[in-house]
Amino acid sequence: MSLISQNARPKNEAKREDDIKEKEAEDVDALKVKKRKRGGKGQQPLAMEQVREMKKLENFLFGSLYSSLEFGKGDNDDGVQAGTTAKASDLFFTDRSADTVLSVYQEDADFPDESDDALQRKPVWVDEEEEKTTVNIAKVNRLRKLRKEEDENLISAFEYVSRLRAQYVKLNPGTDWAQLDSRSKLDGSSDDELTDEENEAVVSRGYENVDDILRTNEDLVVKSSSKLLPGHIEYSRLVDANIQDPANGPINSVQFHRNAQLLLAAGLDRKLRFFQIDGKRNTKIQSLFLEDCPIRKASFLPDGSQVILSGRRKFFYSFDLVKATVEKIGPLAGREEKSLEVFEVSSDSQLIAFVGNEGYILLVSTKTKQLVGTLKMNGTIRSLAFAEDGQKLLSAGGDGQVYHWDLRTRTCIHKGVDEGCINSTALCTSPGGTHFAAGSDSGIVNIYNREEFLGGKRKPIKTIENLTTKVDFMRYNHDSQILAICSTMKKSSLKLIHIPSYTVFSNWPPSNTSLHYPRCIDFSPGGGFMAVGNASGKVLLYKLHHYQHA
Fold it and tell me: Quick check: 86 pLDDT over 60?
């Protein structure tokens, strides 16, 4: 008999033991269920209440997760309808952040009437002392601008706060483009209404859509012409205009051609030089040497075809820019003048007016170069200026009076005294002819309105007293916003006057560099360049940043 067969148990005995174990396990499970039922009878309502609260919290935070919303039924088992107890304002809210206008659905809804006071924003905190506190706005200088009446002194603190807010809004206006009705304003405005008076940027016109913008290389944002502000003028020093060929003597004349790229410079070294002005190289183009005439004045004709040159001689020269020829004219028939150094060219390029002897004004035709007429003053003549496209002529001299001549009839139409002037030394008219400036040997410059002066008003608009020596030269820029005055008898004696306010720019002349003895000045046709000729033979070149074009 083997070992396995000796230890083997009978099959009936093994089956009986398995049945006993199963019954014992079933009895244990039944006892656990009974105990659980006995202990859960008191805790069952509490557990259900907790589950219900959890569902309410989840529905409040995340919406209905377990069941769809049924109108008119609540969550409780009592069947109490929420619609009968809850108000519409508890179930819905109005979003007023986007727009103040109610939508169609909001207008149809039955919301309770709300007063305007309820819709207005109320302060979180109110200071009760504001009604009792007073502020003296007349005592402090910076608060006097808050006064509504001249004799107003004490105001309440509440009124003081409101006036400060109004002053802030006045100094810091809101952006129009952010307003809802800004588009309608822009669409209805005309080109004249969009003038830019404070040097702001405006969008370039002529672009209908994005394709038009992508097809051009022009500036999309451009600066429109604006008024020059007083006080300070923005400028920068460039390379000297005649850096490639400085003069050996004083520069008596500088002038820009009407194309703004050509500049002439002439002086006592008897040379006339032309330069192409770009602000960087200023290339010399040509020079002309006159053997028998130290040049006292040189000037382009307004049409740009010729240059007139003169000195202390009985004759003068004409240089034709197109043909590149020089013509010597004079002496003038019937005249014995020994000097033709002072002259002016009419703006229509028809006449040249020379200063003659004993108060005579010599009128010479630019085409024939012949004397066509004369005008006679009572005293000696020292300065001339044309106005109204060459139809009127102004003259002044040793008698301290300003004469107005009509060149169509060759007669004097008005004569008036320059206030405070004994000897007049310089005259200059604005490009539009509305104003003129008269300088004297005492350094005084009077600025007049020409129409008022012709009407009998002798009082000048403004008297400039910034020069202390004789006024030798004056020049307006192209838009009459700057008047340059200079004296050749003192170093750096050159002032720039802001015409709309009739004040001198405080940062000119530059303090770090010397202008030497300035003798002449000219502005480019677009106002971007300013050239100053001095006694050392240099032509100083400056860039005026307010003007975008030369």
Answer: no
